[in-house]
């Protein structure tokens, strides 16, 4: 069995950030993911260590953006989401769309969620109800009462649950094969393993990696949207 070696720090940035090419040309890099059946314990440890290092870098570079830059990114992502949902959810009335309450410099898509709400969509936010379990989704609307959940993430005070038709998954990193790097809890993978919503990753173009070295537990997203538009769409 070939032992996969995650590359050394920084060498796998696919967007040419250090090389100077425009981030939106990242499409030219072929994803180089490996056979998930070939995984072994040592390899899984290497991948986990590599992911921790990438998360730190990606989160630090995102935190370094100005508020204005982040707002422009969020507005562009919102336009990309509108284009995607025009095809997938032309009439959002009564459909459940799960967003997220932004933490750690994630794009703030609450204004976009508020517009969807005005068009009749039902909104939800995720909550870690029990560590190491799938997320649950609570009904939410702009201005709803909140409380502090796991990791101090604000969650709706309302403790009902709903099943979303569409789930936004904030990306710490992502790759061109549709895989997401999150905060390392495995929560979205557990959630998507148990449900079949349209899972849409949203994040920064600069957070693209050549591959996240997908492991057997990693679940491909249905679509990925950045400020440069739709970057990945599955065949469904
Ligand atoms: N805004 C927002 N809300 C969200 C998510 C998100 O990505 N963004 N989530 C998306 O899933 C869920 C919360 N995800 C979490 C992911 C990891 C940990 C956590 O405890 N991380 C550990 C590291 C784990 C490890 O490396 O083994 C830590 O940082 O100490 C907590 C919450 C639900 N709400
Ligand atoms: N379906 C699952 N069942 C059991 N454990 C899982 C599952 N999915 C992920 N995990 C565990 O979660 C750990 C972290 O996974 P990973 O690095 O993919 O997190 P992440 O996608 O970055 O996190 P998050 O979704 O919380 O932001 C993995 O090492 C794995 O053991």
From TrEMBL:
User: Which molecular-function annotation in GO is an example for this chain?
Assistant: ATP binding
Q: Which InterPro entries match?
A: FTHF_cligase, FTHF_cligase-like_sf, NagB/RpiA_transferase-like
Q: Which GO terms describe its biological process?
A: folic acid-containing compound biosynthetic process; tetrahydrofolate interconversion
Keywords, A to Z, come to: ATP-binding, Ligase, Magnesium, Metal-binding, Nucleotide-binding, Plasmid
Spans annotated as Disordered: 1-27
- Identify the enzyme class: ligase
The catalytic activity of this protein is classed by the Enzyme Commission as 6.3.3.2
Q: Which reaction does it catalyse?
A: (6S)-5-formyl-5,6,7,8-tetrahydrofolate + ATP = (6R)-5,10-methenyltetrahydrofolate + ADP + phosphate
Q: Which coenzyme or cofactor does it need?
A: Mg(2+)
Q: Which PANTHER family match?
A: 5-FORMYLTETRAHYDROFOLATE CYCLO-LIGASE, ATPASE INHIBITOR/5-FORMYLTETRAHYDROFOLATE CYCLO-LIGASE
Q: Do you know which NCBIfam families this protein is assigned to?
A: MTHFS_bact
Family to which the UniProt record says this protein belongs: Belongs to the 5-formyltetrahydrofolate cyclo-ligase family.
What is the official name of this protein in its record? 5-formyltetrahydrofolate cyclo-ligase
